[in-house]
Fold this protein.
Amino acid sequence: MKNEEVIAMLEETADLMEIAGENPFKARAYRKAAEAISALREPIEELVKAKQLHKIEGVGESIARDITEFLQRGTTTRLEQLSKKYPPQLRILLEIQGVGPRTVAMLYDRLKITTVEQLEEAAKSGKLTKLPGMGEQKVKNILEGIQLWRQHQGRIPLHIALEIAERIVTALKELTEVEQILPAGSLRRWKETVGDLDILVATRKSQPIMDKFVSLPEVQKVLAHGATKSSVLMENNFQVDLRAVEPESFGAASQYFTGSKAHNIALRNIAIKRGLTVNEYGVFREETGEKIAGETEEGVYKAIGLIWIPPELREDKGELEAAMKGALPRLVTLEDIRGETHSHTKWSDGFATVEEMAKVAMEMGYEYIAITDHSPPMGWGVKPEDYRRLIKEIRSVSDKLGFPVLAGIEVDIAPDGSLYMEEDILRQLDIVIASVHSAMKMDINSMTRRILKAMENPLVHIIGHPTGRIINQRPPYEVSIDALIDKAKEVGVALEINASPERLDLNDENARAAREAGVLLSIGTDSHRPEHLAFIRFGVAVARRAWCEPQKILNTLGYSEILDWLKSKRK
Ligand code: DGT
Ligand code: CA
Ligand code: CA
Ligand code: ZN
């Protein structure tokens, strides 16, 4: 199946078109086609053969011609022509926050810059500031962007790693030799980004499992292929390690390879004090070498005198002390979540209707969903006169389905802290999320003041994605989280854990600080399509990494309870 290659070709074409300064609509068409193909289940080759390419949304005549040519010769005339103007390796510069296609073209035209290193050098030596439109602030932003880019090199977002892991697990489970299988490492701890995947299998016969693993279709390169350990590279050089252990050691291996390293080291130190050694094979008495645990993880922790610790807590941040006292929190679970608090529809920049979103929420067993479309000034924000109609539609869908649909909004916080929506409308709404989407480059004091002012507005229930970061793409805006937490506590506003896997905002650390201060957190998926409602699991994972019990989470409340809470703010 060549779908991935075709998608990469379309994206490369779009990037190079933008760098070359061609009509932006053309590049956008290529990106849309790439997105549509990524949703295809069947091989694109078959659609070409059956002359069905035009049935894919967004694939017009010229894109269809490119796809056909690409499948025949591995490249396209269009790409070849674009590459003559600007070398394709320039695209790497687009990954740096603050560097757009026009800048890339200028960097190449004026300074022949093609790599991140050359860009950094030019920025530091002052060469960049001599270019048109390159102020000192912009150069500073580029240097920050490079730093961020370096930090994330090679680490991929959790949701993508999870998809890869799920595919591998499904494929390997087909083998009868596999007795148990577990994706361990940072993935099992639900860390927001994953460096590499560490998968474990329990088996008595490992060779066939290793053989199948290294020949999976997604494997780009085999780094090692042994009887009990293999390593491969998938797309984007993402490494996956597979280890096979005897069932008697599966618990110890699960514990060891789940980590974190800091947790393991601290655990080993506790074991040593008790005359025990612990490794990936089991727990042993120091003196006699007798094995006293290893088959299950519970057994491993118990042998060392601890209760089992949920993987999300295993960061050596107090969980071992708590486990020794038997005093771990009862962490919130997916099943505790009783409704959705943050979702968008076609009225703003979503892709489904109010009814379609509500129906999926119903199917998920929720008791309610809040529709919270955007306000102006975003181009796609719903204008006040239309918002009145949206509220009517929400009420009528709710009646028709017999399912509570809360009328809400994600209203923009203006630079001065006021809200971009008429007060009269905000009053009619059941739930108001206030978020920053524009003018993010404020200094820390102004930004903090801006958000605090919104929190003081008695119409606001929740602050959406409080730091504005996008994982691997955009750093948080400058804001004092401590001040937001103090204010949230004071005025009883909830802070959001935005569960969209590209945001996860608040992150685990900030969410933990909020929890410790007694601030209520709302887990919202920020869904723009019905499928996005399933992102809730990523938000729950952040809450768990933040040590949250169910009562710390707003939407573990049932319908009438959350309604009471929302109304209580309006007195
Ligand atoms: P990653 O891959 O960077 O996202 O993070 P992890 O936690 O998956 O780290 P990785 O893949 O290097 O190692 C997997 C687990 O193996 C790690 O979480 C704990 C364990 N481990 C690795 N190196 C050591 C070590 O030197 N000592 C101990 N005690 N455990 C280790
Ligand atoms: Ca790992
Ligand atoms: Ca690893
Ligand atoms: Zn938002």
